[in-house]
Amino acid sequence: MYNLREYKKQNLYIKINERLKQNHKRNMKKNILKFSMALILMSLLSTSCNQLRDKLGFDSNAVETDNELDRVNDDIDVIVEDASDVSTSISNGRVEEGNKFASCAKITHDKASKTVTIDFGNGCVGRDGKTRKGKIIAVHTDAFRKPNSKCTVTFENYSVEDKKIEGTVVTTYNGLNITSKMVQKTSLVNIKLTFSNGQTASRNVTITQSFNLSPNMMESEYKVTIEGTGVARNGVPFTTTTLSPITKKVACFKEKVPYPVSGVQLITPQNDKEPIRIDFGDGTCDKSVTISRGEVVKVITLK
Questions:
Q1: Residue 273 in 3-state DSSP?
Q2: What is the pLDDT of residues 258-292, one digit of tens each?
């Protein structure tokens, strides 16, 4: 039977999604829906590992590993969503600001199996200057971003800057909640990195990303939670837990502050009684992050 209510919900979801895309192009020039914890800590940890340890006063292997795996997941998320938006097979990528693709990347859509393959060949330098090799394969259960659909991502000899990436990412697009006016997706991320020196790092986490809509777009917020475990490059297991959702405000983009404004993440190495607490603030649009472990407290300004 034809379900008019379901049709209206789907139509509203599509309209809101289109509105988000339009605002993205005009106001932010960055896709908020693709943000993960990577952007949160990327600037914080852009210095060398030794410099970070000097600033914090304690061993930060678990924080560094958690951040690095965040960046990997964010990169994969952006690539897969951009490629899945392409309606036909192409060999030169799309011309769009911030796009990861270059003329050497080939994107293929198999409509019958709902499979998107991004092939970087034996070495492809993207618009971000990074060299990628191998393939990312995304299999969808239904139309891209359709509520309750899933996307399973796997890798075939894939690497970024000589870091080999293995594992799976399974994302469920939960769609629009009419009551809470929230667009949400949940990802089960099981990723392993192998570095050129033979060291490895891994993380098995659940990432929930929510975009809370407001009639006034500037009052909308983006929230992320991360729960799970990992193993740092030094071989020490750790847990990562979001104590309060990591939040970004659309309004802060207008003020040129594209950073989290609140939220707390706790990272606990197995061999350490003291967890590392990362506090992103009280909701003010600023670049300050407070990192603490025990009695050691440091306030760092993101660049």
A1: coil
A2: 778 999 999 898 877 788 898 989 999 888 889 89
pLDDT score for 35: 38
The Cα–Cα gap between 295 and 303 comes to 25
What residue segments make up the domains of the chain, in order of their start?
A: 4-301
- C-alpha 33/C-alpha 43 separation (Å) is 19
**pLDDT tens-digit readout, 113-146:** 999 999 999 999 988 888 999 999 999 999 888 8
pTM as predicted: 0.74
Q: Which H or E run contains 77?
A: helix 61-85
Closest residue by Cα to residue 248 from 21, 16, 31: 31
Q: Is there a contact between 193 and 201 (Cβ–Cβ < 8 Å)?
A: yes
Name the one residue in this structure whose structure tokens are 């393959």: 117
Q: Report which of 219, 210, 132, 131 is spatially closest to residue 175, judged by C-alpha positions.
A: 210
Give the total residue count for the chain. 303
Instruction: Note whether 108 and 139 are within 8 A (CB).
Output: no
Amino acid at 172: T
Dihedral sign for Cα 24, 28, 29, 30, please. negative
Q: Any bridge partners for residue 278, and if so which? A: 265, 291
Q: How many beta carbons lie within 10 A of that of residue 202, not counting itself?
A: 19
Helices vs. strands in the chain: H and E counts, helices first: 5, 14
- CA–CA separation, 87 vs 63, rounded Å? 39
DSSP bridge pairs for 133: 159
Structure tokens of 59?
């061993």
DSSP 8-state assignment for residue 33:
G
CA dihedral sign of residues 140, 190, 248, 95:
negative
Residue stretches of the chain with pLDDT short of 70: 1-60, 86-102, 177-182, 302-303
